[in-house]
Amino acid sequence: MLMKPYALIFRTFLVGGLASFSVIGQSSQVEEAQQKLSKSYVNSAKVQSRIDALDEQTRQDYYEYIHTIKRAEQIETYNAQLQKLISSQEDELNQLEQQLVSLSDTEQAALPLLNKMLETLNGFVQKDLPFLTTERSERLTRLSALLDRADVSVAEKYRQVLEAYQIEVEYGRTLEAYSGMLTVIEQPSRDVTFLRLGRVALYYQTSDGQESGQWNPETQSWQQLAESMNWSIQKGIQLALKQTVPELLDLPVRPN
Fold first, then answer.
1. pLDDT, tens digit, for every residue of 192-207?
2. Cβ neighbours of residue 199 under 8 Å, at least 6 residues apart?
3. Could you read off the pLDDT of 73-91 as tens digits, one per residue?
4. Is 212 exposed, middle or buried (0-12, 13-18, 19+ CB in 10 A)?
5. Residue 234 burial by CB count (10 A; 0-12/13-18/19+): exposed, middle or buried?
6. What's the gap between Cα 125 and its chain centre?
7. Whole-structure pTM over 0.85, yes or no?
8. Which residue from 94, 125, 235, 252 lies 20 to 30 Å from 217 (Cα-Cα)?
9. Cα-flanking dihedrals φ and ψ of residue 73, to 5°?
10. Distance of CA 128 to CAs 132, 174, 214, 215, Å?
């Protein structure tokens, strides 16, 4: 059956329209798919960014954790060392307390001993030859006052008392000449030069060299020597003052 021309035209238009609608529909779907894909990319980028941020935070937290662990170990080591130091200081304090107790006991025993030593030294000086009487008397007086002082340690008191003993010991080993006042009963005091021969003998000679004498321990008085001894006494004085070369001295040891 033959179709009419207008029917054929309508059919052609209808088919073309359907084809156009089909193309338009496909284009819309493509755009929608592209939009969805683009949105998916954006969302994926955001998610990746969040993941990266989480990874960075995780790394920072990890490093901070490691640093905290190391710091804790350092503090623990320091505390252990500090505890050893504290224990050592406690031991030292205990030792000091024991020493203080011991020192207190030592002081109680030492002070009577020092007083006894000073008393013995004082008695010895009084019985000794009467040389440097003022100097030796002042030393003993100073030591006596020192022993009564609370602000001076026992060690320092002992040192000074021992030093006084050493000085007295040295007197017995030396030859010494010094100027002083000679006081004799019923005679005026005179300036003389004393000559000490250790602790063996003590002499004097007047400044003009015309009179010499010797201390007599038995009578506890001065005894004048013969004029023939003046030269020997003078030589002894010169030797003690290092004004002449050493030589043998002819001096009386015991008074006649």
1. 999 999 999 999 999 9
2. 128, 129, 171, 172
3. 777 787 788 678 778 877 8
4. buried
5. middle
6. 41
7. no
8. 235
9. -65, -40
10. 11, 15, 14, 11
